[in-house]
């Protein structure tokens, strides 16, 4: 009998974990995506897409599909689905572990301004016109319409449609990883004097943080949301070791 695993994904780590599990005949793995990205990357395991309808819906899915383990490998800012996962695990009795990458910490030379939310980031930009680089998802940009005095350079995975109502915004679509040298060029070429960023952790989007340090640019850093306390691992390898412990290979496997 295979061990059924449901990975809540939407991150590079979720895909990398699925890639390893796809090679292992002990596991039947399904990856769940919210369906936000219009052109998601091909996945190595079967994918289901869209919300479950809250914790009760997720709990019903876990029971109906005979899931043995739920892995929350969602983005650290996707707080709702992580809370839902914890509640669904409690309701269904299906164990839950989380894969959560560590956040970045401020280094010497960084000029970080910590804020609690996107709205607070807008306020932190101030009244004087600035040239701000927004590395945020398309769903998070609306609050910047309240600060039309700034010029924005906006990079997102999907196009920002409709565009913001601000008079000066330049859009680019790109998917990480981003190289530090490219980020340095981007920030310099556009004369950026502030970056608004989430503390995503990992290396794929760290290039802009290092580039900002080198150029002395302020980074308005949106704090991570509070997530439920569950058994957590910081790397794909650590999750795989845990799986080996809880689902030991049978003799001869
Ligand atoms: P969220 O606010 O925590 O979740 C909102 C709702 O979307 C959830 O209640 C759930 O709907 C549904 N949902 C979220 N993730 C899902 C998943 N993996 N599978 C099925 N349904 C899911 O999350 P979000 O900030 O909108 O993020 C959505 C997805 O994008 C996540 O999977 C996350 O890993 C990824 N992502 C997020 C960010 C970010 O900064 N937030 C960045 C990169 C990637 P129901 O309640 O109906 O089940």
Counting DSSP E segments of at least 2 residues, the number of strands comes to 12
Round the mean pLDDT to the nearest integer and report it. Answer: 96
> Based on CA inertia axes, which overall geometry fits?
elongated
Tell me the helix content: 25-40%
Structural class: alpha/beta
Number of domains: 2
* Poorly predicted segments: none
What's the helix and strand layout?
Layout: E1 3-8, H1 12-22, E2 27-33, E3 47-49, H2 54-64, E4 69-72, H3 79-92, E5 96-99, E6 112-115, H4 118-124, E7 131-134, E8 151-156, E9 169-173, H5 180-189, E10 194-198, H6 207-215, E11 218-222, E12 232-233, H7 236-246
Parallel strand pairs: 1-2, 1-4, 2-3, 4-5, 5-12, 6-11, 7-8, 7-10, 8-9, 10-11
Helix pairs in contact: 1-7, 2-3, 5-6
This protein binds NADP nicotinamide-adenine-dinucleotide phosphate (NAP).
The site of NADP nicotinamide-adenine-dinucleotide phosphate has 24 residues, from β2, α2 and α3.
Can you describe what's shown?
The chain is built from seven helices and twelve strands. It is of the alpha/beta class. The longest helix has 14 residues, at 79-92. The chain is elongated, with a radius of gyration of 20 Å. The chain starts with a strand and ends in a 7-residue tail after the last helix. NADP nicotinamide-adenine-dinucleotide phosphate (NAP) binds next to strand 2, helix 2 and helix 3. NADP nicotinamide-adenine-dinucleotide phosphate is lined by residues 8-11, 32-34, 36, 51-54, 57-58, 74-75, 77-81, 84, 137, 198.
């Amino acid at each position: 009998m295979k061990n059924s695993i449901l990975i809540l994904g939407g991150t590079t780590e979720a895909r990398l974990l699925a890639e390893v599990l796809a090679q292992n005949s002990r596991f039947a793995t399904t990856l769940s995506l919210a369906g936000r990205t219009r052109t998601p990357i091909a996945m190595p395991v079967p994918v289901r897409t869209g919300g479950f309808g809250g914790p009760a819906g997720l709990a019903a899915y876990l029971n109906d599909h005979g899931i043995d383990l739920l892995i929350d490998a969602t983005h650290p800012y996707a707080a709702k689905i992580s809370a839902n996962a914890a509640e669904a695990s409690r309701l269904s009795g299906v164990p839950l572990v989380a894969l959560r990458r560590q956040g970045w910490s401020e280094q010497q030379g960084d000029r970080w301004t910590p804020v609690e939310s996107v709205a607070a980031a807008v306020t932190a930009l101030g009244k004087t016109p600035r040239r701000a680089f927004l590395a945020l998802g398309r769903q998070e940009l609306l609050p910047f319409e309240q600060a039309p005095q700034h010029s924005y350079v906006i990079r997102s995975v999907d196009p920002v449609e409709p565009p913001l109502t601000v008079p000066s915004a330049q859009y680019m679509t790109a998917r990480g990883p981003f190289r530090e040298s490219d980020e340095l060029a981007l920030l310099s070429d556009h004369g950026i004097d502030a970056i608004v960023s989430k503390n995503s952790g990992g290396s794929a989007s760290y290039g802009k943080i290092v580039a900002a340090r080198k150029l002395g640019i302020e980074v308005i850093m949106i704090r991570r949301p509070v997530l439920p306390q569950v058994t957590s691992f910081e790397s794909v390898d650590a999750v795989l070791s845990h799986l080996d412990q809880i689902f030991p290979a049978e003799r001869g496997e």
